């Protein structure tokens, strides 16, 4: 027996090992605790398979009782036997607090273990500590506890029948033991209640988890009425690259050549910019050109200025004069794409200046063009007209969709006559005729829309003047009627601005400061 002094015990560590069960309750007896755990045989089976969980049925007599599960965990504890001796008139009586043993396995009601300072001393020698006056406390290390079962989870939902557990178990046994082929088995339920089928488990998990729910994307009607605040995304600001590049060096000259081009105009298409640099004697590889551009420019990954390099600090969405630098696409009709497929390897031989002047047919099935560079009187006249819109929209920029469609038809009409007809299919004349008709229709449609818009504005001004005269000449009752008439007119205050603000939200215009190998492709190099 070890001696307890100042909260420590001395003794030798035994070789015997047991396991502990942190029982989540206060059983009436040790036998009842073993019964709720499935019996000695079930406990031994679980012990042989450490991957299994120890099941605890609080009502083992009830066949519908759902278990609580104990998880196996390693630990480093000791099992102590504490005894107390009392001395009265020279006589000593020992009161021992024993822990029950069952087949070498320890099942305690409430395991209490702690860090013990083990000192090398006499082996298993009984020692007593004389308490004040007549009380002595001694301890003995019974075994090591390297493993334990913890019931940290919640018990499953329980289905409790309205009869006693023994009666319910008897009824269930009768149903199981009854022969399936016996006559009247399925209908003879006079003396039995209908068997209740209960799932093995109601809850799939016994330990709750924190869930981060995704917010609903559908806004309530009240929130829809409120203006949704869009985060402002500033465009990249100009950086002073002159501070870290030595003057009169090769990098300085290269960077200065690129920077001077953006002083000429704020927006460039990459192919035109590269051709201008070649004319000046600068031949950069793809990675070097991308590095030089990223210091002085940025680009949008969507919108009317898609993949166009824009000078840092300049926002084309706020400057109506940027409309002349917008993007327009030319797509070759599928029936004549054989010419493009046959000349895929010759794309580098074409000069961008010849394509913009409509002297060479593009080798690509889709070519991105800049309105400013196209040498066509009609196109240059249209893009320099006063803008009909006050905001830059995501779909068509500073132009209306009708104007953009008319410009696309005009580009098609200019490219088809220079298509090399020999050896690359037929039907170019038919396509040119159809494109010309579409172009003329788009112009007539635009003129008609402009006339109707002008008439509506004129009638609206006249109506407002007449209403003002009526207000001054009639009495209060007629004045109220005119106010009701004004209230029936549609108002453009707020509504139009909201729609346009939604079109030019920074969330749709993804601003990218630097080029990327993954994002760039030959499709957008033009």
Please provide a written account of the structure.
By secondary structure, this protein is α+β, with helices and mostly antiparallel strands. The chain folds into 3 domains: 149 residues, no CATH class; 116 residues, no CATH class; 145 residues, no CATH class. The chain is 33% helix and 17% strand. The chain contains 14 helices and 17 strands. Strands 1, 2, 3, 4, 5, 6, 9, 10 and 11 form a 9-stranded mixed β-sheet that branches. A 4-stranded antiparallel β-sheet has the order 12-14-13-17. It has a two-stranded antiparallel sheet with strand order 7-8. Helix 5 packs across helix 7 and helix 11 runs antiparallel to helix 12. The longest helix has 46 residues. The radius of gyration is 45 Å and the shape is elongated. The C terminus is likely disordered. This is General transcription factor 3C polypeptide 5. One of its GO terms (molecular function) is RNA polymerase III type 1 promoter sequence-specific DNA binding.
């Amino acid at each position: 027996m070890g001696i307890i002094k100042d909260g420590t015990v001395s003794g030798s560590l035994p070789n015997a090992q047991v396991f502990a069960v942190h029982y989540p309750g206060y059983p009436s007896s040790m036998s009842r605790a073993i019964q709720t755990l499935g019996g000695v045989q079930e406990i031994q089976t679980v012990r042989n398979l450490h991957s299994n969980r120890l099941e605890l049925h609080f009502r083992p007599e009830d066949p519908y009782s759902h278990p609580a599960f104990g998880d196996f965990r390693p630990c480093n504890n000791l099992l102590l036997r504490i005894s107390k001796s009392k001395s009265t008139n020279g006589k000593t009586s020992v009161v021992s607090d024993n822990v029950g043993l069952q087949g070498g396995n320890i099942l305690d009601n409430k395991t209490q273990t702690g860090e013990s300072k083990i000192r090398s001393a006499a082996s298993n020698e009984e020692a007593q500590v004389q308490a004040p006056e007549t009380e002595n406390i001694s301890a003995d290390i019974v075994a090591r506890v390297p493993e334990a079962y913890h019931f940290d989870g919640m018990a499953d939902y329980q289905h409790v029948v309205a009869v006693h557990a023994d009666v319910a178990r008897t009824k269930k046994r009768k149903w199981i033991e009854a022969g399936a082929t016996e006559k009247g088995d399925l209908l003879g339920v006079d003396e039995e209640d209908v068997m209740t089928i209960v799932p093995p488990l109601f809850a799939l998990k016994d330990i709750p988890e924190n869930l981060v729910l995704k917010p609903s994307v559908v806004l309530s009607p009240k929130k829809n009425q409120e203006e949704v605040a869009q985060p402002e995304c500033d465009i990249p600001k100009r950086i002073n690259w002159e501070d870290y590049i030595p003057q009169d060096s090769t990098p300085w000259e290269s960077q200065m050549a690129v920077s001077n081009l953006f002083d000429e105009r704020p927006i460039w298409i990459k192919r035109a910019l590269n051709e201008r640099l070649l004319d000046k004697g600068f031949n950069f590889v793809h990675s070097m050109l991308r590095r030089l551009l990223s210091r002085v420019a940025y680009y949008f990954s969507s919108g009317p200025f898609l993949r166009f390099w824009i000078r840092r600090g300049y926002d084309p969405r706020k400057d109506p004069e940027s409309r002349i630098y917008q993007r327009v696409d030319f797509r070759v009709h599928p029936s004549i794409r054989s010419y493009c497929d046959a000349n895929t390897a010759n794309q580098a031989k074409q000069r961008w200046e010849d394509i913009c002047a409509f002297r060479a047919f593009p080798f690509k099935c889709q070519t991105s063009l800049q309105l400013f560079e196209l040498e066509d009187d009609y196109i240059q006249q249209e893009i320099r007209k006063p803008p009909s819109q006050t905001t830059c929209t995501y779909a068509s920029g500073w132009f209306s969709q009708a104007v953009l469609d008319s410009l696309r038809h005009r580009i098609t009409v200019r490219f088809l006559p220079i298509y090399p007809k020999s050896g690359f299919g037929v039907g170019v004349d038919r396509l040119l005729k159809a494109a010309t008709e579409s172009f003329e229709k788009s112009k007539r449609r635009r003129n008609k829309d402009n006339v109707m818009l002008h008439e509506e504005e004129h009638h609206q001004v006249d109506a407002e003047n007449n209403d003002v005269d009526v207000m001054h000449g009639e009495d209060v009752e007629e004045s109220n009627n005119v106010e009701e008439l004004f209230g029936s007119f549609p108002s453009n205050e707020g509504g139009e601005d909201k729609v346009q603000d939604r079109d030019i939200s920074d969330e749709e215009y993804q601003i990218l400061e630097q080029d990327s190998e993954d994002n760039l492709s030959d499709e957008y190099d033009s």
